[in-house]
Amino acid sequence: xxxxxxxxxxxxxxxxxxxxxxxxxxxxxxxxxxxxxxxxxxxxxxxxxxxxxxxxxxxxxxxxxxxxxxxxxxxxxxxxxxxxxxxxxxxxxxxxxxxxxxxxxxxxxxxxxxxxxxxxxxxxxxxxxxx
Length: 131
What we know:
Shape: elongated
Radius of gyration: 28 Å
Number of helices: 5
Distance between the termini: 95 Å
Number of strands: 0
Structural class: mainly alpha
Helix content: 40-55%
Oligomer: single chain
């Protein structure tokens, strides 16, 4: 291959986006900027459109990039939660009221849960609701 052909191929390659630096893979794993790479993926267009609307992204590329960033952030957040629960688990001091439906007061939710609100109201009346 001649010198001219090499220069043309080199000039045709997309470089990093304007103002974006390129880094080695180790730096990229640590959060550094990476040169974008072209990918050919088969994706559900409906999902892309819904994600684009939800994320307020201008382009499909931005949509996918932001969705991937959020997936990475979510995984890190879940790991932090798991570590936190592991630290406090079994220490006591937390009352689980959700295992005892009678302990909850549903009266403020009459329009959403009418049967539960009625039971809550009966429990508050002395001698009512007990058979």
